[in-house]
Amino acid sequence: MAEANRFTQHALSDWMKGDGPESDIVISSRIRIARNLNAYPFPMLATNQQSKEVLEQVSDVVKNEELNTISSFTLVPLSELNELEKRVLVEKHLISPALANESRNGAVILNENESISIMVNEEDHLRIQCLCPGFQIREAWDLANQIDDIFEVQLDYAFDEKRGYQTSCPTNVGTGIRASVMLHLPALVLTQQINRILSAVTQVGLAVRGLYGEGSEALGNLFQISNQITLGQSEEEIIDNLYGVVKQIIEHERAARQKMIYETKAKLLDRVSRSYGILSYAAIMDSKEAAQRLSDVRLGIDLGFIKNVSSHSLNELLVMTQPGFLQQSAGEKLTPEERDIRRAQLIRDKISAVAE
Fold first, then answer.
1. CA geometry: angle at 58 spanning 53 and 59, to 5°?
2. Percent of the chain clearing pLDDT 70 (strictly above)
3. CA distances from 354 to 23, 274, 280, 349 (A)
4. Torsions phi, psi for 337 (to 5 deg)
5. Could you tell me which residues are annotated as the binding site for ATP?
6. Which residues does 305 contact at the CB level (< 8 Å), separation at least 6?
7. Which residues are listed for ATP binding in this entry (predicted)?
8. Do 233 and 253 meet the contact criterion of CB atoms below 8 Å apart?
9. Cα-trace Rg, the chain
10. How far apart are CA 318 and CA 213, in angstroms?
């Protein structure tokens, strides 16, 4: 249990402390691979004994010497975590809401800096996820592919020569790969270009989601762009398509930022400064306002308006101000109003600390 605690006690994963390419716009790059074992039903149809056997087989691979040359790993059974701890892992993007709600032999395998998360008995038997800071989608794929190869040698994957890897959801059949990039696009939102850009994105076979994936709202001007097609294209083709589209979005965001500086710099500076002031002194704040104010300050940092706060601090606040982490740090369940008060206090304390 002590090992599990270290993944839920801090808001910022170590991998997020690094700066990747285009990090003023691209928060992170992620590859997720879905795999299933040939001899077992998909998790939703598996018996308790079958899902237990899957977990045991996967646990054996975690001890593999070749896997441990990549990183050291810890297997955390979900049964060892309480509801708040599970929610914190969801807020840190280390497990999915579906796995957090799974009670039959669900587990997550995490490496030391939390850049690798392998979910067991979620929608599929295995969900291998690799995260990198900034725009490093190809690097994330190289790492995920390396891990997948090690598991494939040890486990009998469900694979069809014609259809590819077999998955619980038909939309993942084929390569089983989801490549996604998290983007901060405040200038495109403020200049009202975002709908046109995102409409064009969906027309080339990509999906747009919010901070926490499918069905979530794009709070704080954060958008996830990911592939929708997994069948009929190679992994490299999927990644190259995403890479090219994201490159164009980055260029549009940069152009929008420059346009705002040239045409409405005073208004932009006022917006950033007001949000910084409110975050520094507010006594109560809901999650939606916090996300928007933090977005304004992040833009101010990227444009050089604010120099005494780092984007890493804002990454940390993005998790610290979520409901699960607020309650985890308080050591008790909180009412919505109590969470809003604690959220404002955490933000004030953090900004005060980094500004000193």
1. 95
2. 94
3. 20, 18, 11, 9
4. -65, -40
5. 28-32, 93, 127, 178-182, 209-214
6. 268, 269, 272, 273
7. 28-32, 93, 127, 178-182, 209-214
8. no
9. 21
10. 15
Single out the residue of 177, 241, 175 nearest to residue 206, CA to CA: 241
Q: Residue 178 forms beta bridges with which residues?
A: 32
Task: Please report, in range form, the residues annotated as the binding site.
Answer: 28-32, 93, 127, 178-182, 209-214
Residue 159 pairs in a beta bridge with: 165
Query: Dihedrals φ, ψ of 225, to 5°?
Result: -110, 125
Token duo for residue 348: 């004030």
Is 50 exceeded by the pLDDT of residue 215? no
Q: How far apart are CA 293 and CA 212, in angstroms?
A: 19
pLDDT, position 66: 87
Residue 137 and residue 128: Cα distance in Å, rounded? 15
Number of other CB atoms surrounding residue 333 within 10 Å = 11
Across the beta sheet with 116-120, the strand order is 73-77, 107-111, 116-120, 126-133, 26-35, 177-184, 222-227, 206-209
pTM of this structure: 0.90
| DSSP label at residue 232 | S
Q: What is the spatial distance between Cα 352 and Cα 346, in angstroms, rounded to a whole number?
A: 10
Nearest to 125 by CA among 164, 80, 86, 167: 167
Token pair of 257 as six digits? 């930022």
Range 332-351 average pLDDT: 92
Token pair of 170, please?
A: 């038909």
Other beta carbons within 10 angstroms of residue 356's beta carbon come to 6
DSSP element (H, E) containing 220: none
The first and second tokens of residue 223, run together, are 């958008």
- For residue 217, what are the contacts with CB-CB under 8 A and spacing of at least 6? 210, 211
Predicted local confidence at residue 122, as pLDDT: 93
